[in-house]
Amino acid sequence: MANRALGAPGLGGPQPLTKPGLAASSQARYQPLLKAGDSHLADRFFFIAILGCGLSVLALVGLIVYELITKSALSWHAFGLKFFFRSDWDPVNNQFGALPFVYGTIVSSILALILAVPLAVGVAVFITEMSPRWLRNPLAFITELLAAIPSVIYGLWAIFVLVPLLRQYVQPGLARYFGWTGLFEGPPYGIGMLAAGIILAIMVVPIISSITREVMTAVPQQQREAVFALGATRWEMIRTGVLRNARAGILGGVILGLGRALGETMAVTMVIGNRPEIAKSLFAPGYTMASVIANEFSEATGDLYLSSLIEVGLALFIVTIIVNMVAQFLVWTVTRGMPARSNA
Amino acid sequence: MPSSHSSPDFAAAPISLWRRGMNSLATCLAATAVFLVLLPLAAIFAYLVYKGFGSINWAFLTQTPKPVGEPGGGMANAIAGSVYILLIASTFGVPLGIGAGIYLSEYGRNQFGNVIRFTADVLNGVPSIIIGIVAYGLVVLSQGHFSALAGGVALAIMMIPTITRATEEMLLLVPIAVREAAYGLGVSKWRTTLSITLRTATSGVITGVMLAFARVAGETAPLLFTAFGNQYWNWKMDQPTAALSLQIFSYAISPFDEWHRQAWAGALILIILIVFSVTAVRIAASRGMLKGAS
What we know:
By secondary structure, chain A is an all-alpha fold. Chain A has helices at residues 2-12, 20-34, 40-79, 99-130, 133-148, 151-178, 193-218, 221-229, 234-263, 266-271, 289-296, 303-335, and strands at residues 89-90, 95-96.
């Protein structure tokens, strides 16, 4: 360690360089600083303590993996891989299949992304490239504020404001004009997949837009000037000069948002309807992996029931980890080093 | 263009109507996106203040929940429970997180440091409900019942990666020369790290801690089957404890108007609690009151 080499003269006492007397007096003067545990031993202890803290991060993730795998073993042995392809969830008869939850999680998250991505990219483009300079920081701060609202408050707002709005105005309209697609059929409860998708979209917008902003800022200024010099309008500059260079990073932001949407629990649980069914209509109630755990975990009677819920958790864990890793890699390709070389 | 070479004419060709139209359209769309994103934010805050403010009264702040049908009652035990659980979480999470951050910045500029850094990022992305399952397995199962401690452990696990990465980032901002100056005076590494490097970065580290605190303060999912909730006061570590977020959740999904009203009030209190504690610590840090803490 380099620091020990640096600290060494102090520890051994200064070597007499010129006159012995001077060295001795200066050593006496610095004595108080050198006392009080300034030894290799103290350094050693400190290093071990700090290393312990660092290792605790590793240990925690190890513990999560261990807990999830051992506690879900029972359900894994009972159902195997079929667990994720069966759609019966029947605690009374000890039959468990996670397909409705997998379906609900995927559909609600994709719906959220479809709604959130254009908005988030639009916000990022506006803040970094279009807005007047004095408006930039306030706007960025306010959009970040959305990320600070606890999920249970989103859920509360969704139940009492968003859901009635959907039931009275939005869903009848959608059913009348787009009912033929089959996506907007059935009675407009308000509560259901659509409400979950919308509230998730509101929650992931700040994540996607803050990553998009970060990535767009990483695009070199010369890139913009070069496109302007060719006579482009501002939008053409943004499209060809900025967005195209930043698109790997923007995709990373989108996937990071997906990771958040997949694991989001409370707000979704409060509005999705919590029924383990697979329906084509977005008006129908559904269920997600996170919300089934939230709703049923503390009431799960029987080892197999609990173990099945933990297996749902394990699957959710693995998927979010992979999604987050991919996202971080994509963002990294843009923000570290040069813009991604993937121009078509 | 060879013709322009002989007689340079740099007057820009007029931009076609189509291109100008597209430019305006894109600007309008981006502005619309900003509006659409700010709309729910404004709506949420407006409803919080509008619905919550009228329901906050002395009883709400000092009483425990009343059974259905009886008017009045409040969330005093839930407010105290939230503070209690957060204190437990900070006791575990803050030292571990800062320690791991110190490791990464002062000793972790190597392959092993990268592994820990990556693991911290992984931990940051784990859904909060999964953390709840793990805390349940670790604490609740070994204790035999739901407890404040279990809730605190769950929140601590969520705080650690945020604090770790923020601490690392802040310590790396401290110039190497500052450390070298300390080494040059013969100060050992541990004292340099604690009373020079960490102290220089105190306000940044505190900001990171508060960020983590704000993030977990409103968490509900990991408390569902750890702290579990409680209708009464509880100050025992090993007993189920009420929490504001849990109370908001169970009141919000209940069918009673009185409880809905209280859920809004609780939500407003929760937001105020988060904003208040974050600003208080920020102000304390900026006035130097916490400088000695590290």
